[in-house]
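Many introductory courses stop at the sequence. We go one step further.
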Amino acid sequence: IWESGCNAFDCARIYGDGECEYILGDWLKSRRINREEVIVVTKGGSAPQSRQWAPDISEETIRSELDTSLKVRRDALNPSTQ
């Protein structure tokens, strides 16, 4: 995918209970891809266990989900850990 020029990836907690973000993070880190080279999109307000969109769109839930997503990506793309 990367070699063909794709640099945008779509993630969300609803995809595999959030595992997709960890898998993508590990994949990016293993290839030593610089954070400025990649675009990662995420979404919040989902409930993986029920596979329903927006069962809880409270500010607290969305902030928590997006903060977790950002942490996963920061951990994966932090040059000091590569």
